[in-house]
Structure formats: C-alpha cells, structure tokens
Specification:
By secondary structure, the protein is mostly helical. It is 77% helix and 0% strand. The chain has 12 helices and no strands. It is a multi-pass membrane protein.
C-alpha cells in the first residue's frame, strides 16, 4: 500500500513540472497549448515502447486477449483530456478551467470507482478527498468561480468538465486493465493510440534548441516517466486513493511557480497548500491502517479505499 502511494505521488509531482515547461514554450516560443499536448504524447511513445519491451523480458506477459476495446477507450480518454483541457483554457478563464478539471476529477473517480470497481471509500480517504478538493480550490483561487457565472465561458467550462471525465475515465479503465496486464505495456499501447488521435495537431516549433529540449523534457519526464510511476502505483492502490494523491500536481506547480518564477501565493493560497498536504497525510495514514487490517486477516486488498 505504502509503495503504491509513493509511486503515484512521485508521478503527480512530475506532472506538476509540465506547467512550468509549457509556460516557457507558450510565452517564449509562441506554441499553442494544444500543440504542446500533442507533442507530449508523440515524444513519450518511443520511451514507453522501450519500457514495455524491457518489461516483457523481465516478466511473462499475458496476451492482450479481448482487451483491445479497453486500450482504445484508454487512448481516447488520454487524447480527449489533452484536447479538451487545452481548448477549455482558450475558451474560459484559466483558473476556472483548472478548477473544474482538477477538482471535479477525483470526485468523479471516487463515485465511479465505488459503482464499477466496488471500491469502498473509507473515512480517511473521504476526509482526504474533501481536504484535497477544498485545498485545490483555495490554491487556485476563489476567483476561479467567477468564470462559472458568465455565459460566454459556457463552452469552455463544459470542455473543462469533459476533461475531468476523461481523466476519471482513463484512471478507471487503467485500473481495470492493470488487473490482468503489466503497466508498461498498457501505457505503450494506449499512448500510441492517443498520439495517433492527436497527430493532426502536431506542428513543428520554430528552430530553437531551448524549444526542442523543453518538448523533449515534457514528453519524457512529466509524461512518459510520470505515467509509468502513476500506473505502477495505481496497480497497487485503489483508484479513489490515487486520485487524491494526484492532487499533488497543482501543489507542485504552485510551489515551483513561487520559487522559480517569483510568483506569489496569497494567504488563502497557502491555506490551500496546507489542506492539500493534510490530505496526503490522511491518505498515507489510511493506507497504513488498511494494509495492517488486511494483513491481520491474511489477504491483500486491491479495492479497499480506507
């Protein structure tokens, strides 16, 4: 349990570094965020295929069987998240899009994991979910709610909610696939499909060493490597718990912006950061207690959301 929590947390931490690189690509090199999203998947694919080939040599891998449709759904969800979120940012306020996509996603995961994966949402996970969502709202800023009341932002807000559904979808489908397949193979197949779906948006950046290195970084570190960590951890913990730990992404992005870009956080923002940290502590405590309880009963759980 604790190992899975740490791997998911590490993956979410790496996700949080993507925003900083993306901001430089947008401001200095004029790249459209949707183009950056397409490059993220395209650059990650060769690395993920290599990881899957290494994994196949280490362990005996079962054949995909009839899971092709689940791989296709996973790939569509990954591509859908990139396309819908970045389009939403263009059509509504950035803070509103972030709030809707990031805060709604773990709630959707918790509800659907209970309905389809039979995960029990225990008191620690429930408290961590509430603390994490509230903390994220405060960290992003309560001004993010202003975009909800303006009609011209309706399409962008709906796209942000669709992005949250895509995130919840690929988390739950990924959890289902991991019950019978190794994580690296799952990612290699689904991200290849996602890259194909977003290939129409690929555009060559201006000739620049910095832009090339940043695209390489975004594709390898906060995409390929981060998702490998996330899926490796997701295989070992409930999806509802993983969705709470994934809220480390906005916290990482905010802290990096403070120390590397000189951006400030308001007292309310710092309170949100504290609530996010509290949610991670609650998840960790719940994981340890849940693991201890199941060991005492003589079996390992994959669905207990305590």
């Amino acid at each position: 349990m604790r190992t899975g929590t740490l791997w998911v947390g590490l993956g979410a931490f790496l996700w949080g570094t993507a925003g900083l690189a993306g901001k430089v690509l947008t401001l200095r090199h004029g790249m459209d965020p949707l183009v950056i999203g397409a490059w993220r998947l395209a650059v990650s694919v060769p690395f993920l295929i290599a990881a899957a080939m290494w994994e196949a040599k280490q362990t005996a891998s079962p054949p995909p069987g009839r899971r092709v449709r689940w791989h296709l759904l996973f790939g569509l969800a990954v591509a859908g998240y990139q396309a819908s979120y970045f389009t939403a940012v263009d059509r509504t306020q950035v803070a509103t899009a972030t709030m809707l996509a990031v805060c709604t996603a773990p709630l959707l995961v918790a509800v659907f994991a209970r309905a389809f994966l039979r995960e029990r949402i225990g008191p620690h996970t429930g408290a961590a979910l509430a603390s994490g969502v509230l903390g994220t709202v405060l960290l992003i800023g309560v001004g993010s709610f202003q975009g909800l009341a303006q009609v011209q932002y309706l399409s962008g807000n709906l796209l942000a909610l669709f992005a949250a559904c895509c995130y919840a979808g690929y988390t739950l489908v990924g959890k289902h696939l991991l019950s019978g397949l190794p994580p690296f193979r799952v990612l290699a197949i689904t991200f290849t499909l996602g890259a194909i779906f977003l290939s129409p948006f690929l555009q060559l950046p201006e000739p620049s060493l910095e832009a090339g290195l940043l695209l390489l970084y975004v594709g390898l570190v906060p995409t390929a490597l981060a998702y490998l960590f996330y899926m490796y951890g997701l295989k070992r913990i409930p999806a509802s718990r993983a969705s709470v730990i994934a809220l480390m992404e906005p916290l990482t992005a905010a802290i990096l912006a403070v120390f590397l870009l000189g951006e400030g956080l308001t007292p309310v923002g710092w309170l949100g950061a504290a609530l996010l940290l509290a949610s991670f502590v609650l998840v960790s405590v719940g994981a340890e207690r849940g693991a201890g309880a199941h060991q005492s009963r003589g079996f390992e759980s994959g669905v207990d959301g305590e």
